[in-house]
Amino acid sequence: MFNIIKISCWKRCSINIYKLWGRFFVLVKNLQAKVEDRLINHIKESIEKAVKNGEIELEEIPEVNVEVPREKEHGDYATNIALAAAGEIGMNPRQLAEIIVNNLSAPEVEDVSIAGPGFINFKMSSRWLYDNLELIQKLGKDYGKVDYGKGKKVQIEFVSANPTGPLHVGHSRGAVVGDVLASILKTAGFKVEKEYYINDAGNQMDIIGKSTLLRYREILGEEIEMPENVYAGEYVKEIAEELYEEYGDSLLAKDENKAIEICREFAYKKMLKNIKRDLKEFGIEFDTWFSERDLHDGKIKSAVEMLRDKGFIYEKEGALWFKSTAFGDDKDRVIIKSDNSPTYLAADIAYHLDKLERGFDKLINIWGADHHGYIPRMKAVIEAFGYDRDTLEVIIVQMVTLLRRGKKMPMSKRAGSFVTMREVNKEVGTDAARYYYIMRSTDSHLDFDLELAKEESTNNPVYYVQYAHARIHSILENIPAEFSEDKADLSLLTDQTEIDLMKTLASYPEEIKLSAEARQPHHITGYAYDLATAFHGFYNNCRVLTEDEELSKARIYLVKSARQVLRNVLSLLGITAPDQM
RNA sequence: GCGCCCGUAGCUCAGCCCGGAUAGAGCAACGGACUUCUAAUCCGUAGGCCACAGGUUCGAAUCCUGUCGGGCGCACCA
Fold first, then answer.
1. Average per-residue pLDDT for chain A
2. DSSP string covering A257-277, please?
3. Is strand B in 7 Å reach of the CB of A220?
4. What is the pLDDT of residues A535-556, one digit of tens each?
5. Strands laid side by side in the A313-316 sheet
6. Using CA atoms, how far apart are residues A190 and A188, in angstroms rounded to an integer?
7. What are the CA-CA distances from residue A42 to residues A26, A123, A153 (Å)?
8. Which positions 371-390 on chain A have a beta carbon less than 7 angstroms from any atom of strand B?
9. Which residue is nearest to nucleotide B20 (CA to C1')?
10. CA distance A581 to A563
11. Which residue from A136, A501, A536, A561 has the fewest beta carbons nearer than 10 Å?
């Protein structure tokens, strides 16, 4: 915005605009350099000074950390530096703390105290909180962005289910985790591409072909006993019905292999279409849909040759093996079977080579817990191609148990009685579904109670967060017309609940960074919840629209800032921000 | 047998990476707050050998070792 103004009126007012831009930039920069960092610097300077004065003897300034204490009474920030360094210096921690405090000069610190075994607690002046509100208003949608990722290219591959049936709840969690993680990483400054690997080659595809053909014959009056190892779900019947509508009984006359092929391709197209539709309706879109079939016309071969040249391929018992034990795997793995067909791993080798060659700095794969045993061999593949094994990062998402009123819902793949992603989303709504799938750490097993997720009540965290947004809308609707437009005096915001809300707003960028670093979306649902809590607390304690116009204006400014951050975080989660509930 | 994840309040879970002050939420229980910008909210009370046993440390829910319990894997399947 500022750039455009600068160019369009360059001659006339370039200096003014420069000044404006410059001030804005300093504000952003200062706040991004963050109070914490400045505080850390002040502490370091204090220690340096004490060393110079000869009050303490120290070779090197140790790493200083500040944290937000659990207890509010302990101030805004605290450091344990005196405790950490006391041993090395050979001094009692409290005494050392005192020296540090005496040498400290930090304008933004309002009060400092020594507590407990030697903690130094800081109470900060509120000015930075007011500045931060202005920053939120200025940055709008961009508030929360950090440059932690430094523009590095990350590819995140997730879902990647066989197109042999509809997506079920087992896929849902990975889908939302992947989608939200991608958003988090983007916000944290990475360049992110989302990719779906379509396993459209190999055995499973033939099986869906066979299954469809059997159901097709059944429709045409044959008595069919469904064998083991066949897709038995109802959806196969539906596909067969449509197949019949299109082909009549003409497939019966065909050679069986030819018929299976037709069935397979028919089912494939239909299932892939369904998967894409279901994901889209769930708010999940991919940048790339990568077909496994594209690997089978040469890429597998050349990838295997490349490994052979590097000496990681050998032949045994009529099969071709990849020497994954050279990179820490338990055993070597077959990649070309004795019948000359490639294994799943062979395709994955070619696929990951392709990814690596596309120039990503980081490949993130999101897998279900049942695939964790596959990690060592894939890491081995990455290393065999000469890349750092950490280029590939696999995030294992633990299993989901669907419950209804606390009772486990039966799910059997064999009987085809799984609950589809679509059904669940339809029942509880996509907002609640998305929230529930990411509200727990990916490392933890997830209990998903349908009745709870559906409940429009205090039990339901999704509505709790959304309600905060609706309340803000309601307040802003009621602003009296006669309120003047001039600037609000933010220093009127002094109530504890106002301070708490402003602090929560200020911590958003840091939350993004931590969440991106840990690759854990649940930190963000937690933050959204905390933000709503801070807002509700403020709402119950402070009336926004009052007789006091000045105070009202300051609170309106705060409320608008809260709305902005709520919107940013909800949009990040892919959850709507309703004006009314 | 080996590997990965989990074990924290009655229930569902944060906190663990990077050790610090009295271990936090929500639900359930109990008691309060609507003539007000939405009570789908807020405030309070109660509830814990952080699975167990050792070790490291001035200090352990957090790090190390072992044990027990639960889940998931250990294919020339994908």
1. 89
2. HHHHHHHHHHHHHHHHHHHHH
3. no
4. 999 999 999 999 999 999 999 9
5. A313-316, A319-322, A333-336
6. 6
7. 19, 14, 35
8. 371-374
9. A80
10. 15
11. A536
β partners of residue A77: A122
What integer pLDDT is reported at residue A397 of this predicted model?
A: 97
Neighbours of A193 (CB within 10 A): 17
Phi first, then psi, for residue A303 (nearest 5°) are -65, -45
pLDDT tens digits, one per residue of A43-82: 888 888 888 888 887 777 777 778 877 777 778 888 888 8
Give per-residue burial for A411-449: e unless 16+ CB within 10 Å, then b: eeeeebebbbbbebbeebbbbbbbbbbbbbbbeeebebb
Of A252, A186, A254, residue with least CA distance to A220: A252
Terminal Cα distance for chain A, rounded: 34
Q: Which of chain A's residues 47-66 bind strand B, using a 7 Å CB cutoff? A: 65
Give me A22's structure tokens: 């410059």
Q: Is residue A143 within 8 Å of residue A564, measured between CB atoms?
A: yes
Structure tokens at A321: 């093996």
In this structure, what are the phi and psi dihedrals at residue A158, rounded to the nearest 5 degrees?
A: -155, 170
- Dump pLDDT digits (tens) for A219-276: 999 998 888 888 988 899 999 999 999 999 999 999 999 999 999 999 999 999 999 9
Q: Mind listing the domains of chain A with CATH numbers?
A: 35-125 (3.30.1360.70), 203-281 (no CATH), 457-573 (1.10.730.10)
pLDDT of A400 above 80? yes
Per-residue pLDDT of A203-218, as tens digits, reads: 899 999 999 999 999 9
Q: Which nucleotide is nearest to A376 (CA to C1')?
A: B3
Please report where in the chains the tokens 């369009």 appear, as a residue: A8
Mean pLDDT confidence for A20-44: 61
* Cβ neighbours of A408 (radius 10 Å): 10
Whether the CB-CB separation of A491 and A555 falls below 8 Å is answered with no
Whether the beta carbon of A581 falls within 7 A of nucleic chain B: the reply is yes
Q: Higher confidence at residue A88 or residue A210?
A: A210
CA A215/CA A359 separation, integer angstroms: 45
pLDDT of residue A414: 54
* Cβ atoms within 10 Å of A247's Cβ, excluding its own: 16
| Residue A433 contacts residue A425 (beta carbons within 8 Å) | yes
CA A126, A130, A133 angle in degrees (round to 5)?
140
Tally of CA atoms within 13 A in the half-sphere of A482 that contains its CB: 4
Residues facing A122 on adjacent strands = A77, A112
Kindly indicate the confidence band of residue A429, based on its pLDDT and cuts at 50, 70 and 90. very high
Nucleic strand B contact set for A 2-31 (CB, < 7 Å)? none
Strand B closer than 7 Å to the CB of A527? Answer: no
The nucleotide whose C1' lies nearest the CA of A479 is B37
